[in-house]
Amino acid sequence: MSNSKPGQYYHDIDGARSVLMFLSVALHAGTVYAPARPWITGNVDRHEFFDWVIFGLHLFITPTFFFVGGFFAVMLLSRRTFGGFLWNRFLRTVIPLVSIAVTLNMAEHYLRWVDNSGNSGLANWLASGDFAQVWASGEWALHLWFLVSLVPMFILAAIVHAALPANSGVRCLTVRLSDGIASLLGKSWAFALFLLALAGANTLNFAVASQVPGAYDLIAPGFQSWYKLVSEFPFFVLGVLAALSPSLLDRLRQWRSWMPYAALIAFAWQPYAFPEHGFAQGMAMLFTNQLAMWVLVLFILQFFHRYFSAGGPRTAWLADCALSMYLFHHCLIYIYGRMLVSLDWPIALEFMLLTLAAAFTVIALHELVVRRFAAIRLLFNGKTDIAAVRKRPGFWTSFATVRS
């Protein structure tokens, strides 16, 4: 399914995913102090700056995850059987999702229940309607909603791969179409038009999804709505096309001198559509919002391709720790955020301490537990390579030693 070279490793794309998972710690730490998130801990010391931070980071972190998910899905399908791919995704996605959902996510929901209701006692919470609502509403997933969305996308990718042989007309047409798009993107003006087209496709995707009957209702108890499920699908699709067409991938990652400025404007402006907007203004803001997302996502790809393509032990360690960081940090942010509520420290200092405390706690957990115990690595990282990972450089060796 992929035209990549056998054994080729994309350090830049994996590095982008890893760094963004670490950046998610700052995003969720910002919610503790963002006025737009008043239900996050009982902290009343808040500042609009953190609204700006979290809404800006939301523009590109999760969309980039979906692009990377589509890209590496094709990579895996080109090297594994249908069953092998699904088993790999089950290990790497479903098992960690379930493991965190029933442990740290439930611990966080319990703490939120105690903080909001003033009640205590785990048995009381488990017997309450609030506990049942957590599971029925889909809130059990918390920050891991994107993994829930990725699972059906992986299944769809596997089905399409199995249904379309390598020499099928549809697959060949898709590759030719992707190569044709790539041939048009050499000029900066053509790439700019491509960004506009991508934003238009996203806007159309939202418009169509909103017309599906019950689009905003949960597809099934505890799952997601149709609207939520397909909201990031275009990013997954472009990741698939980039994996099918190396020439398209090269064009997407091609450094363009104006993109940093476009990304800076997109992040600073942060266009969003709000309910108070009329239809015309709302659609215009939705289009602009999606354009900002595409600018930031593709800038991230270009930036990491330009500066982080070499790989090395640091990149390898980041890639190995990335899932641990994403899975574990959310509950730690809440726990440490609760501890800071009673302190009257400068808000910037609290934010930095909260971010660093959560990040280094996860690093310690990854180094001392996830990398050392096979059962924990399987449950919380979805990997069975414990013997091999013990031989690889750890955090200190990777970052604190001087390499010749």
Q: What share of the residues lie within helices?
A: over 70%
Largest sheet: none
Q: How far apart, in Å, are the first and last alpha carbons? A: 39 Å
Q: What structural category arises from helix and sheet content?
A: mainly alpha
Instruction: State the low-pLDDT regions, or none.
Output: none
The overall average pLDDT, rounded, is 93
Please characterize this protein's 3D structure.
This protein is an all-alpha fold. The protein has one domain. Helix content is 72%, strand content 0%. It has 20 helices and no strands. Helix 1 runs antiparallel to helix 3 (61-77) and helix 9 (169-184) runs parallel beside helix 13 (246-253).
In short:
This protein is mostly helical and 404 residues long. It contains 20 helices and no strands.
Q: Any key phrases for this structure?
A:
404 residues, mainly alpha, 20 helices, 72% helix, 0% strand, globular
